Amino acid sequence: MSESNSLVKLQRLLLISDSDMAAAAQQLIQLSDEDNNSSSSNNSSNGDNNKIIKAKKSKRLFEQSQDEITSSKIEEIFGKEEEVVRPIKQRRYRFLDSIYKETKPMKVSYGMNLWY
After folding, report:
1. Where in this protein does the record put region Disordered (predicted)?
2. d(CA 59, CA 50)
3. What is d(CA 47, CA 52) in angstroms, rounded to the nearest whole number?
């Protein structure tokens, strides 16, 4: 008997009215339409962003080509710029003993003390 009661309850749950089922289906359709619309608006804004990025790239390429043209004109007029190579200055290091040997000791007085 308990099995038949549970079956009846299950059948009632499963037999949701057609109007409820239709309303739920309609809500799902509306939600999916909203998602599609929002994604398409995002795609159109992404398309705008892509256009902006392409425009910036083409502008950058145009400026770069203008710079190359300008530098080639300058080279035509003044000739190619030669790099100036400076000789590398060689550093010389000395040991402290050699410095002390070659210098004369000085008398320095700080108060009462004399230092040599």
Report:
1. 31-52
2. 14
3. 9
| Cα three-residue angle 25-29-32, rounded to 5 degrees | 135
Residue type, 87: P
| Nearest alpha-carbon partner for 116 in 100, 96, 95 | 100
> Is the model's pTM score more than 0.90?
no
Cα 66–Cα 49–Cα 68 angle in degrees, nearest 5: 10
Give the closest residue to 44 by CA, choosing from 32, 33, 36: 36
- The number of residues making up the chain comes to 116
Structure token pair of residue 22: 């239709």
71-112 pLDDT tens trace: 888 888 887 777 777 888 888 888 988 888 888 877 777 666
